[in-house]
Amino acid sequence: MGRRAFLVPTEDTRSRHRDAPRTATTWRIRIGTFAATAAMVSAGVVLGAGPANAAAPTAIKLTSASCPTEIVQGQASGCVTELQRLLNAHGAGLVVDGQFGANTLYAVREYQAATAIAVDGRVGPQTKSKLYATAGTAPAAINLQSSSCPANIVQGDKSGCVTELQRLLGHFGYSVDVDGDFGAGTASAVRSFQASHGLTVDGQVGANTKRALYDDDESPSTSLDLRSSSCPENIVEGQSGGCVATLQSLLNGKGQSLDVDGSFGPQTLTAVKAFQSASGLTADGQVGPNTKAALYSNIGGGGGNGAPAPINLNSASCPAEIVQGQRSGCVTELQSLLNHHGADLAVDGDFGPLTDSAVRDFQAEKGLSVDGHVGTNTKAALYGAVTPPSSTPPGGGYAKILDVAEAEVGTVEGSARANSYGSAVGLSLSTSDYAWCATFVSWVAKQTGASSYRNSYVSGWVKQARAGNYHLSVTTSPQPGDIVAFDWDGGSDFTGGNEHIGIVRTVSGSSFTTVEGNTGNPNGGSDGVYVKSRSSNSSYDVVFIRVR
pTM score, two decimals? Predict the structure, then answer.
């Protein structure tokens, strides 16, 4: 599940363990940028002319007839005042002066990127609608497990912690207003949630309730493009997986309110038929080419047609060389990566002259052949270092598992290096945006060739080991280089979404150390790949997996 948190929680034995990508129905602002902006504002470093709200025109609702269809840089009005207020509700930290300047433009682009809207910096109908749908006047969401939230969140509180609480409750199916105000409706939903999860029913959101709110079931990736060869030509009731999750996410973007669980059930069928009827299509509930095209139409803001969903450049869905003139999710991904390196392109999935120029600039900067063709070397450079350090070359089978894993210790979540792990399971996501411990194990397996199995779910690794597939088996005599799966809830069923996985480093009786991805830094700071001390004699259950 996506997290709208602006502070990254550190891991304890039961937090940030989920092993599937967080869904696109919720979003996460780029932490460093907005956090730094907010810090400067709070410190008195003003990013615009004059103090906040000084002489700002009276705010006008963006969807009113008084505001232009597109609000763009250079304009000054109450519409811009409203825009800045809404962006600040998402953590932008802008001076609210009604002037659409460079800082407002940057904040618009950041918001569009974070919410899967084509990044053109123009506030058109889609961006306006999204701004009101995702925040309104609610305080910016704050992760419940951060130090910014009280130990117990209770009725009467008003804050971004309550915003986050309400959004999490909504994910579990509770109908509450996301307004940052802990009223009677939110209290009732909290009590109901506590009762259904076997918690003390007191209406107070303490440590156990917070943990349970984040301990949702694993969710499939929503990064697949329905139009790609990775998805069936017709997606129908009864199917499951990432293509269905993407479908559900797109339907939600068209006004539905589905759980993005990757399972095409009766509710998804009803939503598909409703969308088809509204779009003038045959309402047969089958998501074929016409329905897919309609789902992807008008995704983008600024009046554009929207960017195709990003596709990892190294996947089989992208050509060996991506060149000017192409339009696809591969180009969407390319533009996003170029922007990560400072290009500031509109992310529209269309490889035009500006994208070509940005590719050539990047190639020149990296000492590559400057031809504007995005081939193997350029792709590798865009993703950062994607091969293990020279001290631990790829290959070597199970004997090299620990060597390769240990070489990654200290890799920080969200870095280009960490993000490259997703290539092992076909994901092109920042590791800041999903629980990636099993993705890291898959990447190590791929680098060493120890097993052909890849999965971003812990449950998948346990299932295949228990079945004796892919050179995997369960062992009760762990050794360095084995894989270890944790079921924090106990029971060893690995079905509750409350799991974790790592690689055994040392063993001493019932105690052992591991190398784990998506785990807390023992010295504080961002999550990443670190060594942890664990035990097979604890409240949680472990399964050791041998790779031979």
Answer: 0.37
